[in-house]
């Protein structure tokens, strides 16, 4: 088994978004990544970095890029604000309160063709997935205006988040078919 | 200015001037498109020909503009998406919400 990996640093400034994405793309091209994988990586990385810029709170963010066994894995780590999601006016912030969360599935938001859901492994880990909806007719006025998590989840083979209680670190892991 | 607007017959073509269409320009982009729609145009072509990439914030602004247009009985179409941007539209099915044209001139010609 061969594994190639490289770490990138993001200082949470808008000016770095595109150059960092291009640096990751260049690394992956050197490892033989094809056009489709590159296109997907650009989308996913851009959203991971944008999310960090919006929500991290100015802390430094690290992106580990690994290629192994048919997958490219992007892992975003930071010690900034933990993930928080507003669902129907109710704010869920990680780590979630209580130890009874494992096995629950939550609805995060839906758009005109898909429902973004999250499977809770425990009060610290969530795995995102999309349930497709057969659209009857798209009601344009009901279209969502927030697409970040949906873009990453749709583009990836798997996408999950974990809050490490010991180190107070956020960790987003996105795996893309190579 | 994020967009440069130009009348083309009964249409307005709004050409995005930035290469990086991301969260730093999304709010201004939305405000400018809303102002064009409030100005009375019924057919707005958003030209992405100069844009390298878009992020979810910018797409959110575009969708908000579409909703505002619908409320004003106007239409917003998009043109000249590069392969990456077209792929993003298709990924989250925005290709079902917007008419997509290869170029702004074709979008203008296609005006019903």
Automatic annotation (TrEMBL), chain A:
SUPFAM superfamilies registered for this protein in UniProt: ATPase domain of HSP90 chaperone/DNA topoisomerase II/histidine kinase
InterPro entries in the cross-refs: HATPase_C_sf
The protein, known as: Histidine kinase/HSP90-like ATPase domain-containing protein
UniProt source species: Mucilaginibacter pedocola
TrEMBL record, chain B:
Gene3D superfamilies for the chain: STAS domain
UniProt-recorded Gene Ontology molecular function terms: anti-sigma factor antagonist activity
Pfam families assigned to the protein according to its UniProt record, in alphabetical order: STAS
Ranges where the STAS domain occurs: 26-111
InterPro entries membership: STAS_dom, STAS_dom_sf
Name the UniProt record assigns to this protein: STAS domain-containing protein
Organism whose genome encodes this protein: Mucilaginibacter pedocola
């Amino acid at each position: 088994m061969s594994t190639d990996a490289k770490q990138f640093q993001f200082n949470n400034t808008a000016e770095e978004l595109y150059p960092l994405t291009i640096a990751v793309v260049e690394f992956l091209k050197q490892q033989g990544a094809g056009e489709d994988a590159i296109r997907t990586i650009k989308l996913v990385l851009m959203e991971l970095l944008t999310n960090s810029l919006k929500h991290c709170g100015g802390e430094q963010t690290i992106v580990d890029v690994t290629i192994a066994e048919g997958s490219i894995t992007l892992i975003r780590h930071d010690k900034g604000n933990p993930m928080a999601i507003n669902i129907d006016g109710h704010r869920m912030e990680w780590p979630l309160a209580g130890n009874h969360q494992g096995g629950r599935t939550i609805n995060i938001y839906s758009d005109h063709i898909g429902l973004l859901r999250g499977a809770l492994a425990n009060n610290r880990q969530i795995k995102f997935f999309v349930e497709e909806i057969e659209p009857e007719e798209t009601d344009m006025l009901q279209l969502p205006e927030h697409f970040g998590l949906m873009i990453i989840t749709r583009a990836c083979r798997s996408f999950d988040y974990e809050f490490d209680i010991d180190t107070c670190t956020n960790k987003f892991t996105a795996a893309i078919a190579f | 200015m994020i967009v440069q607007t130009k009348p083309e017959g009964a249409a307005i073509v709004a050409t995005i001037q930035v290469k990086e269409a991301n969260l730093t320009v999304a709010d201004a982009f939305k405000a400018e498109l809303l102002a064009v729609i409030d100005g009375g145009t019924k057919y707005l072509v958003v030209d992405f020909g100069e844009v390298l990439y878009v992020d979810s914030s910018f797409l959110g602004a575009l969708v908000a503009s579409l909703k505002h247009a619908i409320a004003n009985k106007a239409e917003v179409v998009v043109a000249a998406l590069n392969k990456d941007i077209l792929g993003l539209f298709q990924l989250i099915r925005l290709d079902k919400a917007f008419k997509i044209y290869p170029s702004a001139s074709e979008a203008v010609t296609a005006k019903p």
